[in-house]
Specification:
alpha/beta; nine-stranded mixed β-sheet; six-stranded parallel β-sheet; binds NADP nicotinamide-adenine-dinucleotide phosphate; about 475 residues; about 35% helix
Length: about 475
C-alpha cells in the first residue's frame, strides 16, 4: 500500500516544479502509486500566483505530458491533492504561520520538503522550518544540483543542511540515476553471470559516457558562465554514471552498500594534475553554427559578452586505478549545442583473440553494449552473426535489443516519478550521499584550478558539431573514435 505523505514544493512556480515535479506526481497518481489522502503543497511567493496556481499547473501538465497522458477527469481528482501555500522564504516570519497551520492537524506522517529554489536560500529555508517546529522524525529534504561551486562551498551547503536534517533524511537528486535504463544496467550487471564475467579491463577495450545537448544557454546565462560544463555536468551526472558502471558488486542493493562502492570508484579515479590535464582533457566553447539547418548564435553572442573562458564542452580520458579497471580508459564527454541530443554509455569489448574466418566473411567487429538514456531509453548488445540469406559464410553485426519495449510499449519512464516515490518510501539507494559529493569535487577541483592558473582558453567548435577537433584527436591517438549518436 502506498505511503501517505505531505510534500512541500518550495519553488512551486519555478521551471523544475512545473516542468518535472508536478508532471511526475501526476503520473504517479495516474499509475495508482500515490496514496489519495496525500497532500502536495506548492509554495508561491506572490498571492496572485497562488490564486492562479492550479490552472497554471494544469496548463503546464498539458504541455509537458505526452498527448495521451493528460485526462480532465484524472486532473480533477489529482488537483484535490494540491494545497497551494503563499510564502516568501526570506520574508518576515508570519508568512510561515500559514504552513504551520497546514500541518497543525497532521503530525505523524511522512513530510517532504523539496527545495526547488536557488541554493542560496536553502539554509534560510531549513533554519525557519526548524524554528517553526516543522521538522519531525519523518521529515525529509530533497535538494537538486548544483551542490556548491567547489568542495568548500558544497561542504558549506551540506554542513548547513546537516544542522537541521540527519544525513539519512537528505535526498540529493541526480535525475539520471532515476532513469529506467540506469537501473536496468545494474540489473544486467548484477543478475547475469554473463556480464559479471565480462566486466573488466581484460574483456573491455574502453568505455564511453557521453551527454550531448543541442540547447545553448537558455535562460541560465549568468549561472552557466560562472559554472561551466565541468561543474554543471561532469562533477555530478557523468561521474555518477561512471560510478554505476565501474563499481564492484555491492553486498546488497541497500543505499549504504551502493554508496560505499561508488565512493571507492571516485577515490580510485586517477588524479589529474598539472600537464596531465592538458594531455587528457579537452575544453571547448561553441561559436555560431548550423544546428538542424538553423543558424544559431555562438556562446559569447548568447552571453552578450566580449569574452569568456567558460567551457561549454569537455572531453576527458580518465582512468580508474584498481584491479578491475587497471589500464583501461574511460572517455567522458559532454557539450552544449552539439549535433544531437543524446545521453549514451558505450561499452566497447575487445576484438576476438583469433580470427577463424578468412577476410571474405567481412569485418569482425568487437561486441558493443550500448545503453541510451535519452532522448529514448534503450539497451542494445551488438553481436556478430552469420548473414542468414547467403550460402557462403558472411558475417554481419546484429543487435540484441534488451529494452523489452515491445512487451512494455505502454510504459512511460519518468525518472522524477521514480525518485519522488523513493523519497516517500525512504529509499535513498539512487540518491547521492554527502561523501560522494566530497569525493567528486576532490577529483574535479584540481582540474578547474589548473585551468584557472594556466589561464587556459577553451578550444572553439561550431554549434551543430560534435565538439572541437581536439576531442576527436584525444581518441584518435589511441586508435579509437567516439560513437556519435545517429
Ligand atoms: P526557477 O525557474 O528560477 O524557479 C525558482 C523558484 O524559486 C521560483 O518558484 C521562485 O519563485 C522560487 N523562489 C525564489 N526565491 C524565493 C523565495 N525567497 N521564497 C519563495 N520562493 C522563492 O528555478 P528552477 O529551474 O525551477 O530551479 C530550482 C532549483 O533546482 C535550483 O536550485 C536549480 O539549480 C535546480 N535545478 C533545476 C533544474 C531544472 O530542470 N529546472 C535542473 C537541475 C537543477 P518566483 O516564481 O516567485 O520567482
Amino acid at each position: 500500500m502506498a505511503t501517505s505523505f505531505d510534500m512541500v514544493l518550495f519553488g512551486g512556480t519555478g521551471d523544475l516544479a512545473l516542468r518535472k515535479l508536478i508532471p511526475a506526481l501526476y503520473r504517479a497518481f495516474k499509475d495508482g502509486d500515490l496514496a489519495e489522502d496525500s497532500r502536495i503543497l506548492p509554495v508561491c511567493r506572490q498571492q496572485a500566483d497562488a490564486d492562479s496556481y492550479v490552472e497554471n499547473a494544469r496548463e503546464a501538465l498539458k504541455i509537458h505530458l505526452k498527448a495521451d497522458e493528460y485526462c480532465d477527469t484524472l486532473w480533477g481528482r489529482f488537483s484535490q491533492l494540491l494545497w497551494v501555500v503563499c510564502l516568501d522564504i526570506t520574508a518576515p516570519d508570519e508568512h510561515w504561520d500559514l504552513l504551520v497551520d497546514v500541518f497543525s492537524s497532521v503530525t505523524e506522517r511522512v513530510r517532504i520538503f523539496y527545495l526547488a529554489v536557488p541554493p542560496a536560500i536553502f539554509s534560510r529555508c531549513c533554519e525557519t522550518l526548524s524554528e517553526k517546529g516543522l521538522i519531525h522524525a519523518h521529515s525529509r529534504v530533497v535538494v537538486e544540483k548544483p551542490l556548491g561551486y567547489n568542495a568548500e562551498t558544497a561542504n558549506e551547503i551540506n554542513t548547513k543542511l546537516a544542522l537541521y536534517f540527519p544525513e539519512e533524511s537528505i535526498f540529493r537528486i541526480d535525475h539520471y540515476l532515476g532513469k529506467e535504463t540506469v537501473q536496468n544496467l545494474l540489473a544486467l550487471r548484477f543478475s547475469n553471470v554473463l556480464f559479471e564475467c565480462l566486466w573488466d579491463a581484460k574483456s573491455i577495450d574502453h568505455i564511453q559516457i557521453s551527454i550531448s545537448e543541442t540547447v545553448g544557454l537558455e535562460n541560465r546565462a549568468g549561472f552557466y558562465d560562472e559554472t561551466g560544463a565541468m561543474r554543471d555536468m561532469v562533477q555530478n551526472h557523468l561521474l555518477q554514471l561512471l560510478c554505476l558502471i565501474a563499481m564492484e558488486s555491492p553486498n546488497s542493493m541497500s543505499a549504504r552498500n551502493i554508496r560505499l562502492e561508488k565512493i571507492k570508484v571516485l577515490e580510485s579515479l586517477r588524479p589529474m594534475v598539472g600537464t596531465a590535464v592538458d594531455k587528457h582533457i579537452v575544453r571547448g566553447q561553441y561559436v555560431a553554427g548550423n544546428l538542424n539547418q538553423v543558424l544559431v548564435p555562438g556562446y559569447l553572442e548568447e552571453l552578450k559578452a566580449a569574452n569568456s573562458g567558460t567551457e561549454t564542452f569537455v572531453a576527458i580520458k580518465a582512468h580508474i586505478d584498481n584491479w578491475r579497471w587497471a589500464g583501461m580508459p574511460f572517455y567522458l564527454r559532454t557539450g552544449k549545442r552539439m549535433e544531437k541530443r543524446c545521453a549514451e554509455i558505450v561499452i566497447q569489448y575487445k576484438k576476438v583473440s583469433h580470427q577463424v574466418y578468412g577476410q571474405q566473411v567481412g569485418e569482425v567487429l568487437p561486441n558493443r553494449l550500448v545503453i541510451r538514456l535519452q532522448p529514448e531509453e534503450s539497451i542494445k548488445l551488438v553481436l556478430m552473426a552469420k548473414k542468414m540469406d547467403s550460402l557462403a559464410i558472411k558475417l554481419q553485426a546484429a543487435e540484441l535489443n534488451l529494452t523489452l519495449s515491445d512487451t512494455y510499449d505502454s510504459f512511460k519512464s519518468d525518472a522524477y516519478k521514480r525518485l519522488l516515490l523513493d523519497v516517500v518510501e525512504n529509499n535513498s539507494a539512487l540518491f547521492i550521499h554527502r561523501e560522494e559529493v566530497n569525493a567528486a569535487w576532490a577529483w574535479v577541483d584540481p582540474i578547474i584550478d589548473y585551468w584557472r592558473q594556466a589561464k587556459d582558453q577553451p578550444q572553439l567548435y561550431r554549434a551543430g558539431t560534435w565538439g572541437p577537433t581536439a576531442a576527436d584527436e584525444l581518441l584518435a591517438r589511441d586508435n579509437r573514435h567516439w560513437f556519435n549518436a545517429q
